[in-house]
Amino acid sequence: MSFTNICTKAMKNNLLIRTLTGNTILISLLVGALILSRKEAIAQGAKDSASLLAGQADKLSFTMYLSSIVSNGNRSVKVQVRRKENKKTISVVNLKSPINLYLNEVKENNPTDGTGWISKLHLNHEGEGTFEFPSKFNKLTSGLHEYTFIAKMDSDLIYKDVEDEITISDAKIDIEYTGEDSIKTVTATLSAWKDLAYVPVPEIEVKLGIKRTFNFLPFGDPGLSTDENGEIFGELPLDIPGNANGTLTIVARLEDDETYGTVEATADIPWTVLPKINPLRGRTLWSSGDNAPLLLVISSVTIIVIIWGTIIYLIYLLFRIKRLSKASYTYGQK
Amino acid sequence: MEKYKKELNDADAIELLHQYNEDLLPRKFGIIGKTWTLFLFIGFLTGIYCYTNQLKQGLVITGMRDFVFWGIYISNFVFFVAISLVGSLITAILYLLRISWRAPITRLSEVIAVAAITFAGLIIIVDMGRPDRMVNMILHGRIQSPIIWDVMVVATYMMLSILLLYFPLLPGIAFCRDRLNGIPKWQKRMYSFLSLGWKNSPEQYKIVKKAITILSITIIPVALCIHTVTSWLFASTYRPGWDSTNFGAYFVSGAFLVGSGGVIAGMYLLRRFYPAYDKYLTDDHFDRMAKLMVLLAMVYAYFSINEYLIPAYKMKGEDSEHLNELFTGYYAPMFWSVQIFGMIVPMIVLLFKNGRKPLPTFIMAVLVIICAWFKRYLIVIPTMSFLPVQEIPEAWKHYSPTLQEWLITGGSLAGALLIITLFVRFFPIISVWEIAEERGISEGVIYKHMHEGNEK
Asked: d(Cα B4, Cα B6) in Å, to the nearest integer?
């Protein structure tokens, strides 16, 4: 073997080794990065467990919060667990151990009336666990008008003493809308179950609002309480735009009440449909999509039709090629 | 121009055609090829893994916030769009100008274009905090917004690039279908499906040639639009450094430069790992591509001077702060490096005949590509630090990409390279029939003997 050949071979081997070494380093870097990012993601949960298992459990105080929400007759129960760290209250998130939720008493589930254990909840990344009553369960408990919810973490050694209990009475809100001339009012009636019937509840603050994309826009006089008929009135502002269907969603809400929890009702009322083209502002570059300048719309659509028309024609040519392949032909035949 | 065309009798032509078929069939990868593919695959999967984290946790895992809302995803998007323009440059423009030496590099440029534009589209979706709302952009978008134009033009260019890759590839796929033996069934089925039952008939060739002409004419304005519209995303936003009427031309010229760099790098690597390609990707091709690159670098330099010199002469308001950051401030080392190594050095080196040999040309091309990526970084990031709001906390003005953001960006680059690598593995990266036509083999011989040759 000549000297040149030996050198070439050595260079090739060297290149291969360098390539493999380089790749190995890069792959290791990527894997390392993956591990790091994974570590970051589980850091919060790991921090809780590690510090607790190190014997600090007794130094930390945990508080569980239970709340009941009834929205348009659908009931749900929300659980949160918080603890103090450096004089700050923080939510406990992504706990592996479940929270057991009971109705009326801590016992196994009674399939005839739905009392006892009802569900297992896990805290999510925001530190909340929610149980929504399924319709089957609603039917089962329809005879109940007072609910005692108990949440316990009895399966977890660290959190076994953490629990909360709330008793909620059945209540509902009805919404009535009156739209005459230029005055549009909403009446919400709060009533609670008492002596085999729903009776109006006076002197409780109920908020009225309009449902927007992300929140609740209040209207009416703030801080008003229900009158002796359990009613509260609010006058709707007329300059509020409705949704595309020409409706407005009204919300009446009793928030976090000791006796009734959170009770909410919504109702869609007829509202003004906005014109597609706003005659006041006209078609401008800074208007909504529906109000784009006609020249821009026409030129854009023309260009799109021409280019995509060509693309469709080219796809048709592919079909023609496919069709030609079915015709009898041997290589070289003209 | 006629250098590659020779007078051939039929016997020589058939022999040559068989030789091309022999040389240019796709081959199995060796250890380096497999390691490279594995590396890209791991890089791509890492990007996907980090993206699933982003989907779960939101854009909070990135360094972007309310004020600095565009980061390396967008600079990476601009880079991908830029490099994708090479498809139109090499294939369409050189085709319409009847440049005879373009045949061996057309498919390489087309596959680079398809890979880059695919990931340009994907990285834009990655940049969206809620990708599920992409459909809302189509349903409720404003035609007045450059973002809508960009979405439309990216989709259109991707479609045209795929077709421009696919039409000339049909005879090659059919050849793989008929002549590659001992391959897995799925591969055979893939060739069979993609070849559309190609029979090498003159009618089919006629359609392919017609389609290439239509595509070459159509893709040029769309290619110019795609990068011009991308530049308008910036130019239509009120930020220092972006208030420019020069942006469209500046972006397009830079795109052609990096695209040609991509093709040269691909040519060199193909020659390096497939020795038989020496006959097709000759030193002369490197010489011509290098000359083209010098021309493109000069055009880009002209627009760059326009872009920076006049605002620097006026030095008004926030523009002066921005330019000072670039010329002498925090970004100065990066700014001057990309100007010098991404434009001036290649221009000078490639002016010399020895500089236009394959290895130096390859090195210059790699420099151009790397500097092009950082150039896009400099176009997007420093400007984002100048907020049109007063008295805001200093920390809000700063952006540094997070590790996961880098890994997602790296994953997209790996993904684009993976498409090119897999294409080279499974399809002929140099078009046999176009080479044959370029080298004077008659259509009759091609139609009749194209699918002959040694079976592999």
From this structure: 6
Give the 3-state secondary structure of residue B213. helix
Residues facing A77 on adjacent strands: A68, A131
Angle at B164 between CA B161 and CA B167, to 5 degrees: 145
Q: Count Cβ–Cβ pairs < 8 Å, chain A vs chain B.
A: 117
How many angstroms separate the CA atoms of B93 and B86, rounded? Answer: 10
Contact check, Cβ <8 Å, A307/B142? no
Give SS3 for B49. Answer: helix
For an interface test with A, give the residue of B143, B213, B449 to mutate (most A CBs within 10 A): B143
Identify the CATH class of A63-169. mainly beta
What is the model's pLDDT at position A252? 94
Joined together, the tokens standing for residue B401 give 């990409």
Q: What's the DSSP call for residue B87? A: I
- The rounded distance, in Å, linking the Cα atoms of B82 and B84 is 5
What is the 3-state composition of chain A as percent helix, strand, coil, each rounded to the nearest 5? 30, 35, 35
What's the token pair of residue A212? 């927007």
CATH superfamily of A171-270: SoxY domain (2.60.40.2470)
Q: Which of B424, B409, B415, B423 is nearest to B377 (CA)?
A: B409
Q: What one-letter code names the amino acid at B189?
A: R
Handedness of CA A300, A301, A302, A306 (dihedral sign): positive
Burial class (CB in 10 A: 0-12, 13-18, 19+), A331: middle
Q: Do A292 and B39 touch (CB under 8 A)?
A: no
Q: Is B269 on the interface with A (CB under 8 A)?
A: no
Q: Which residue among A20, A33, A307 places its CB closest to the CB of B156? A: A307
Let me know if B58 is exposed, middle or buried by CB neighbors in 10 A (0-12, 13-18, 19+): exposed
pLDDT of B94 > 80? The answer is: yes
| Residue length of chain A | 334
pLDDT beneath 50: ranges in chain A: 1-4, 6-8, 10-12, 14-22, 36-59, 332-334
ipTM for the predicted complex comes to 0.89
**How many Å apart are CA A135 and CA A73, to the nearest integer?**
11
DSSP string for residues in B155-207: HHHHHHHHHHHHHHHHHHHHHHHHH--S--HHHHHHHHHHTTT----HHHHHH
Q: Is residue B298 very low, low, confident or very high in pLDDT (cuts 50, 70, 90)?
A: very high
- Letter string b/e over residues A237-256, b meaning 16 or more CB atoms within 10 A of that residue's CB: eeeeebeeeeebbbbbbbee
Total-model pTM: 0.73
**What backbone phi and psi angles, to 5 degrees, belong to B82?**
-60, -50
- Tell me the CA end-to-end span of chain A in Å, nearest whole number: 54
Assigned token pair, A139: 């039917």
Check CB contact under 8 Å for A16 and B32. Answer: yes
B449–A41 C-beta distance less than 8 A: no
- B2-449: CATH topology is Formate dehydrogenase/DMSO reductase fold (1.20.1630)
Could you read off the pLDDT of B408-421 as tens digits, one per residue? Answer: 999 999 999 999 99
The whole-angstrom distance between A329's CA and the closest CA on chain B is 7
% of chain B residues with pLDDT over 70: 96
Q: What are phi and psi of A267, to 5 degrees?
A: -150, 140
Q: Which of residues 46-85 of B touch A (CB under 8 A)?
A: 46, 49-50, 53, 57
Closest residue by Cα to residue B262 from B313, B229, B296, B233: B296
Residue of B nearest to A334 (CA): B202
Write the DSSP string, A3-57: HHHHHHHHHHHHHHHHHHHHHHHHHHHHHHHHHHHHHHHHHHHHHHHHHIIIIIG
The whole-angstrom separation of Cα B226 and Cα A303 is 14
Q: Please, which residues have CB within 8 angstroms of residue B418's CB and are 6 or more apart in sequence?
A: B37, B40, B41, B44
